[in-house]
Amino acid sequence: MASHGLAYDGCNFFRQRLVLSTLSGKRVRIKNIRSRDDNPGLRDFEASFIRLLDKVTNGSRIEINQTGTVLFYQPGLLQGGFVEHDCNPQRSIGYYLEALLMLAPFMKTSLKATLRGVTNDPADPTVDLLKSTALPLMKKFGIDGDGFDLKVLKRGMAPGGGGEVVFTCPVHRTIRPVQLTDPGKIKRIRGVAYSARVSPQMANRIVESARGILNQFLPDIYIYTDHMKGVNSGRSPGFGLMLVAETLNGCFLSAEMSSTPQGQGDPVLPEDLGRNCAKLLLEEVYRGGCVDSSNQSLALLLMTLGQPDVSKVLLGPLSSYTIEFLRHIRDFFQIMFKIEVQKPSEDERKGGDKVLMTCVGVGYTNINKTLK
Amino acid sequence: CEEGEQGALRWKEGLKQKASEAFLRQQEAAPNLRKLVYSSVVEVGDSDGEEEELGGLFRVIRPQKSKRFQADALDCSRFNPDPCHNWDEEEVLNSIRDCFVTGKWDKSQDAATLLKEDEE
């Protein structure tokens, strides 16, 4: 099997495997993809993800067997540049963007990606959430500079889609190691209540009910209402809320909730959605740490790729996705983290146990970047 | 002679209790996350999906839903823990009060102490 690189089973953690394969240059073979399913093989959204990967790389070799149950991927070089991609609306743009965020700093030329599809759905992190949590997190690792931005040009709710976002990221040679061990106290809460193809009043109703809960803790709360009209509102109606708590040390904890897509289950009231989303944010604050739960793997990846120095990051409880990501990092980069549980002291009211992750970076340098 | 024998056997007294105490102590200690993460996962073999032959020609496959390691589950980074706290209760709300600037501060960072130090 040595000639085939690493081998995995099943379709879960699909993006992790392909992203880590691309960064490490190790070939990967995934077999038994939904082999026992009535409808076996890769789904359309996974095919769409592979096409996106093919667009940002140069010289990748992708082989899929006839039934789509076996995938072989030999990564090429990360090319970057202008990329346009119609993301399959089975998954929201967040699904594709999460992987792109991990790859973007290591391109040959700066990436400018225009992604079209579903901007907000209940399953994946929405583009609004990634914009306000993943980008500041990456800045902590020294990924910054002109044109590091994520813009929502058109909103497209599930299932119809029709949204458009532009993600631009400059290239970086190396990643700075970080010490994020103290999140500090939460100073303010910001948020976006968005609505498309419904009454603009929906967003206001969401804001009202969310504030009702959050005001018990803080006075400094501002939730923007974002109502897109006409061609900018996509093909499906819907609304939702994204909340971000910002700490004194510049860490971001987030929560979000979207209305159920049209024709898929019971409709939700904007008041309930606002209240439940506020409670989700409190849950996230209880878990705590310097990185919120949906960005754990991004933080761990950047720690792994950092310069050969010690990086420390305090996280909340590890999600199962993150645990699998740690295993994959070991497979692709031979890095194992030191994992310590930190219990809050008796008289502190700071939520649950935290996890301190420590590692020494592999000293990854961007070999794709052109020297000037 | 008998006394000596008793002394030798004394360590056996309450062995079961000692063992259970030691076990509980270990349980209370921080769960070894590193072991949880990096120890090898129990791979679910092919035999897990029940197979039965129909007329010696077809095989019926019934996939089991309760696989611990779900190889074909949805690839999603969202973290949704099952036991959510009840955020309507005052006690639960109080458990995170100090995460906010409005909560109690450390002695070294408390505004009142800092002001006093400035005055001195």
UniProtKB/TrEMBL annotation, chain A:
Whether Transmembrane helix counts among this entry's keywords is: no
Q: Where in this chain does the record put each RNA 3'-terminal phosphate cyclase insert domain?
A: 181-285
Recorded GO MF terms: RNA endonuclease activity
Q: Could you tell me which NCBIfam families the record lists for this protein? A: 18S_RNA_Rcl1p (TIGR03400)
| Function summary | As part of the small subunit (SSU) processome, it plays a role in 40S-ribosomal-subunit biogenesis in the early pre-rRNA processing steps at sites A0, A1 and A2 that are required for proper maturation of the 18S RNA. Activates BMS1 by promoting GDP/GTP exchange. Does not have cyclase activity.
Subunit structure, as described in the record: Part of the small subunit (SSU) processome, composed of more than 70 proteins and the RNA chaperone small nucleolar RNA (snoRNA) U3. Interacts with BMS1.
User: Which named protein is this?
Assistant: RNA 3'-terminal phosphate cyclase-like protein
Gene source species: Monopterus albus
Q: What is the lineage of its organism?
A: Eukaryota, Metazoa, Chordata, Craniata, Vertebrata
